[in-house]
């Protein structure tokens, strides 16, 4: 990338429209690897439960393991990419993902499946972290908002599209085939990096003054009140979404009687809510000048109302529609929050973009992975346990938003 730029200019400003489109597509593929790795096999949960002879909580732990591995992987890959550049960590981590996918496809029991799922999550971590860091390397100000909104769309859409695709794959293959597909996806990522991605972090920027060590970069981030608060709010937003993802396979297939394809169709409908939320949110920020912190104020308020509505309607016996309608509203609100969180977290941290992206992702997936299995412990025979976890996540997010982030104190984004 060009090294000499006028003040206030960024390398991405010099890219042509076609070049930007290539970056959006390739970085979108990288970003989607993690969510697809986590969620593609969700429709197979009841099948796995029957084949391995274990309870729903044990199957959900394989999801938790993937998310925890994903979170830990980001904590390592992000700072590593700030030190050595973006491409090498991405390639090596994705090769681990491919190997773990093969292991999961051949797993003889639930224990080995859980082990390989942790490694799979660890290997998939590089895609999202490096993609966000590359965008921050290239862009700033309102262009950063626009580019991050594209990644946020993929990041929000992939978790709800993955089960749709997974349900269709189960028509032509067993659950092991899904892991072979994930291994092939990892191979595509490696090829895309080798042929389409150039290094966006010049060697001269890898040891910036005051940020030469991992400790220095973490110190900068943890001393930024807005970053810390937004990371927690984003993690609670993700936790609410994953409370749904981890329980929905049992809830809709076993309680409401959906087959795998109907379950996939439900996810397709919910994906429209994510798309709408991300697009409207990014337009409000980039064209209307609405501060991302105020987007989050609206998100937490709507999510609280939607989650409480699920509980009330479920307890009054309203049935399927009493769950799916407020659930759609909740998921759409998650989409509203994704780009706002990313913009607030990365806007002021170009010098440590990889580390910032890794912390953001680690908190998203790590906390969601730890908290969402509570749904399984509470039970999956009704929608109320899922909604209780959602309410808890929103309460924490709301408190942190107003006491730590403090929306009125957040400065406006630069042009």
From TrEMBL:
Record-level GO cellular component terms: plasma membrane
What region holds the Major facilitator superfamily (MFS) profile domain? 20-410
Q: Which SUPFAM superfamilies match?
A: MFS general substrate transporter
Q: Where in or outside the cell?
A: Cell membrane
- Its primary localisation, in coarse terms, equals membrane
Kindly state which keywords UniProt assigns to this record, in alphabetical order.
Cell membrane, Membrane, Transmembrane, Transmembrane helix, Transport
For biological process, the GO terms are:
xenobiotic detoxification by transmembrane export across the plasma membrane
Q: Which PROSITE patterns match?
A: MFS, SUGAR_TRANSPORT_1
Identify the stretch annotated as signal peptide in this record. none
The record ties this protein, via Pfam families, to: MFS_1
Residues that span the membrane, as ranges: 21-42, 54-76, 88-107, 119-139, 151-171, 177-198, 226-245, 265-282, 294-313, 325-347, 359-380, 386-405
Q: Which GO terms describe its molecular function?
A: xenobiotic transmembrane transporter activity
Membrane topology classification: Multi-pass membrane protein
Q: Report the sequence similarity comment from the record.
A: Belongs to the major facilitator superfamily. Bcr/CmlA family.
Q: Which NCBIfam families match?
A: efflux_Bcr_CflA
Q: What name is this protein filed under?
A: Bcr/CflA family efflux MFS transporter
Native source organism of the sequence: Agromyces atrinae
Highest lineage ranks of the organism? Answer: Bacteria, Bacillati, Actinomycetota, Actinomycetes, Micrococcales
